[in-house]
Amino acid sequence: MKTETMAFVLGLAALSGTAQAEAWRSLDGAAIQTALEGRKLTYDSGAWQDFRASGRTLYNAGQDSWGNWGVRGDQYCSQWPPNNLWACYEVEGSENGVRFIGESGDVTRGTYSD
Questions:
Q1: pLDDT mean across residues, the chain
Q2: What is the average per-residue pLDDT within 36-46?
Q3: DSSP letters along 65-77, please?
Q4: CA distance 46 to 13
Q5: Which residues fall within 8 angstroms of residue 26, CB to CB, at 6 or more apart?
Q6: pTM exceeds 0.90 for this model
Q7: Do 57 and 65 contact (CB within 8 A), yes or no?
């Protein structure tokens, strides 16, 4: 393949990847509430989570696990009995779902499946 043709093909591949990249934006408290309440997410692992308007949440990675969720300030927070501690995360959203960012920078991505 000629050098010019190879450069053109590689350029198209790069543009295609850029065009398909998801646009993530940081969400404030109200936007987090809107993004999650009454919605269901499926995670990359295949697990899913349903966020009830009541503040209850159902997580399933092979079996049901009930917890609680809420928005505190501009963070999503969850609590899973019997533990009383709440864990909170920054949230970024896109039209396809959300991603939760932990204190150490770990990211969990969920895609809307409702």
A1: 87
A2: 97
A3: EEEEEEEETTEEE
A4: 29
A5: 90, 91, 92
A6: no
A7: no
Q: Which amino acid is at 74?
A: D
Q: How many CB atoms lie within 10 A of CB 113?
A: 13
pLDDT at residue 13 tops 70: no
* Spatial separation of the C-alpha atoms in residues 11 and 101, rounded to whole Å: 32
For residues 111 and 98, the answer to whether their CB atoms sit within 8 Å is no
CA distance 24 to 28: 13
Architecture of domain 24-112: Beta Barrel (2.40)
Domain-by-domain residue ranges, the chain?
24-112
Q: Tell me if the bond preceding 82 is cis, omega within 30° of 0.
A: yes
Distances (CA, A) of 37 to 67, 83, 96: 14, 23, 15
DSSP conformation letters of 23-61: --EE--HHHHHHHHTT-EEEETTS-EEEE-TTSEEEEES
